[in-house]
Amino acid sequence: MKPFLSFENVSFAYHNLKGETQAIQNLSFQIEEGEFVAIVGPSGCGKSTLLSLISGLFEPEEGSIIFRTENSRPTVGYMLQRDHLFPWRTIWSNCMLGLEIQHSKTKDKIAYAEYLMKEYNLWEVRNKKPNELSGGMRQRAALIRTLVLNPDLFLLDEPFSALDFQTRIEVSEDIAIIIRNSVKTVVLITHDIQEAISLSDRVIVLSNRPAKVVREIPIKLTCTDKSVLATRTAPEFNDYFNLIWEDLKGKEETT
Ligand code: ADP
Ligand code: MG
């Protein structure tokens, strides 16, 4: 069967008055349906650009992006670093926003939103405003707002990087569970190597800008407890970590 998504020699540059920034050059990789793929790379290497290409915001200048559903793009859910909840709307009405925009607020979808909010402990706070909630709860609300749209593909762009360390571990744990239960195919962008190893089935390591694939590592952890903290003590964890660390060492963009 064809892969869910395939980048074939994709290049993309930003053009503006100051000149040209080649963000991605000759990038090829594939994602299978049902995979949870983490993409790591130095900051500024082109990771967010890559997600914009997947979601169709930008078109490749060279090469092509091929989806298994040839004539239509999969529907895409996005989760970003900031939760982008509207402060004047309640948590419930924030979660309804996507459905309202899509004019698809059906009984079934409302029932699904209710189910998700109950399942993930937001039901009790549904009439509160975002600023009355903790950062972790707000991220969950932002996630549910996207999940009710039932996307085929979920894209996360460094969604935990604004959180402090402890919240980050808790939230990434929560969110990974919710996503694994609700969405099939996931692409997580992160520059946290540990997060990538703990959460994903496969890590794609990118080079400095323009981004190319340096390494692809299928993650197979032998621990039975798959929680974020437990995976970090799995015997294979350090080998994966060191491999990726060596690839990324000294590669942050300095400009
Ligand atoms: P990452 O997400 O890996 O940090 P980005 O994909 O955001 O990197 O950006 C890749 C490169 O393209 C960076 O050098 C960045 O400065 C540049 N870039 C990003 N967006 C624009 C834009 N709208 N116009 C010009 N250059 C941009
Ligand atoms: Mg980025």
Can you tell me about this structure?
This protein is α/β, with parallel strands linked by helices and 255 residues long. The protein has a domain at 1-74 and 199-255: Rossmann fold (3-Layer(aba) Sandwich). The chain has helices at residues 47-55, 91-95, 97-101, 107-119, 135-147, 165-182, 193-199, 228-231, 237-248; strands at 5-16, 19-31, 36-40, 62-67, 76-79, 153-157, 185-190, 202-206, 213-218. It is globular, with a radius of gyration of 19 Å. It starts with a strand and ends in a 7-residue tail after the last helix. The structure holds adenosine-5'-diphosphate (ADP) and magnesium ion.
Widest sheet: strand ordering: 5-6-7-3-8-9
What sequence of helices (H) and strands (E) makes up the elements? Answer: EEEHEEHHHHEHEHEEHH
Q: Kindly report the average pLDDT value.
A: 89
- Given helix and strand content, the structural type is alpha/beta
The stretches of 5 or more residues where confidence is low (pLDDT under 50) are none
Task: Write a concise synopsis of the structure shown.
The chain is an alpha/beta fold and 255 residues long.
Could you outline the blueprint of secondary structure elements for this entry?
Layout lengths: L4 E12 L2 E13 L4 E5 L6 H9 L6 E6 L8 E4 L11 H5 L1 H5 L5 H13 L15 H13 L5 E5 L7 H18 L2 E6 L2 H7 L2 E5 L6 E6 L9 H4 L5 H12 L7
Parallel strand pairs: 3-7, 3-8, 5-6, 6-7
Antiparallel strand pairs: 1-2, 1-4, 8-9
Helix pairs in contact: 5-6, 7-9
Magnesium ion (MG) binds next to helix 1.
